[in-house]
Batch of 2 targets.
Target 1
Amino acid sequence: MRIGIIEDHQLVRDSFKKLLELQQEWQVIIEACTVSEAKLAVEIEQPDIFIVDISMHEGETGLAFLSYLNSYYPEIKTIVASMYDYEPYVSNALSLGAQGYVSKRSASEALIDAVNSVIKGGRYISEDVKFNYKDPSNKLALLTPREKEALPLFAKGLNAKQVAQQLDMMPKTAHVHKANIYQKLKVSNSFDLLKIAIDNGLIALDELA
C-alpha cells in the first residue's frame, strides 16, 4: 500500500512513517510539510491513502488539502490525524471527504486500524474524538460538494459517463463519486437514491414527469 503524509512537525511525520512502514508492503511515498508541497507531490504520483494534519504553520490548512483531493483525486482515501479532535473540525473534515479521523493522542494505537478500515471502504473515528454527528436523517452532510451535485443525476438514472459530461469531469471520477455516495448514504440501488433525493428537495417530482 502506498501512503502519503502531510504533517508540518518532522518528529510526528517521522514517527508516523516508522509506524506505518512496520506493516508488510506498506510504503510512505509522500512526506509533505505544507499543502502546496503536498499538491506538487500528488501530481507526480498518487498514494492509495493520505494521512492529513489540519493545522499548518505555513499556507493553507489540511482542510483545504482534503477539498483539493476530493476535487481532483477522489479515489485517494484520507484520514485526518490531528490534535483538533473535536467539533466543528471533525464534521468539517468528514464533509470534505475524510473517511477517518484519529486524535494524535491515540494515533500510535489507532492509526494502523484506521488505515486498514478506510482502505477497505469503511470509516474509522478513534474513540477519543469528540464527534457530534448522530442524526441519521442528516446523511447528506457526509457528502462532498461534488458528490451533492452528482447525487440527483445518478438518482435520475444517468450513468457515470453521462454524469461526467454534465459535471465536466472524467468518467473515472464520476464512478468514484457514485461509489462514495452509495457508501455514505447506505443505499444499494438508484430507487433508494431517488427517494433520498426527493425527500431532501434535490429533485422535484415534476422533473420526473
Note: Strands lie at 2-6, 27-32, 49-52, 77-82, 100-103, 124-125.
Target 2
Amino acid sequence: MKHLHLSPLAALLLAGGLLAGAAHADPLVFDAAGNATFSALHAGPGSYVDEFLFAVDPELMGWASGTAAVGKTWINPNRLANYGISDITFFRVNLDNSRTNLLSVFNGGAAIEFYPADPLVAGNYGFSVSGATALAGRGGSYAGNLNLVTAPVPEPAGFLMLSIGLGLLGLCARGKADNKLG
C-alpha cells in the first residue's frame, strides 16, 4: 500500500478550506495501514459541527470507512453519554474551495459507522460531524477512526484491453452457435 501524502496543491487547498471555517487545524494523517484518528471536545452545552479534512493521492483511489464513539461521564450514580452525534457527511473540496456533499451512509446509535457511498478518487475531501451535548450544563466529547483503503487508479489502456478481450470472447461465442436448431 502506498503512503498518503499531501501535494503542495493539496496542502494549499486544505489550508484554504481551514481558513474558511473548518473546526480543526490539521488535516488527518493516515498511518501505513490507512488509519487516521479524530476527536473533538466541547466545553459547554449546545450544538456543534466539526470538520475533518484529508486528501487522496493523485495516483490512487480509495474506499473510506469510519467509526466513532461518544464519551461518557458520571452523572449521579450512572455513567451517561455526554454527547450525541446526529450525522456525519462526507464532502469533496473543489478547486475554488467550495464543497460538494457526497452521498454518505451514517448508522448512528451505540456503534456509530459512516462512509461515503462511492469510492473516492484523487482529490481533497473531508467529513462533518454534527451533534450536540446531551446533558444540560455539561461538555461533551467524541473520538473516532477513519480507514482509507487505497489502490492505484486503473490505466485507460487496461480498460481498452479488457473491452477488446470481452468483445473477442463474444464473437467467439457467437460463432459457436448451433445452426441446426433454428
Note: The chain is about 20% helix and 45% strand.
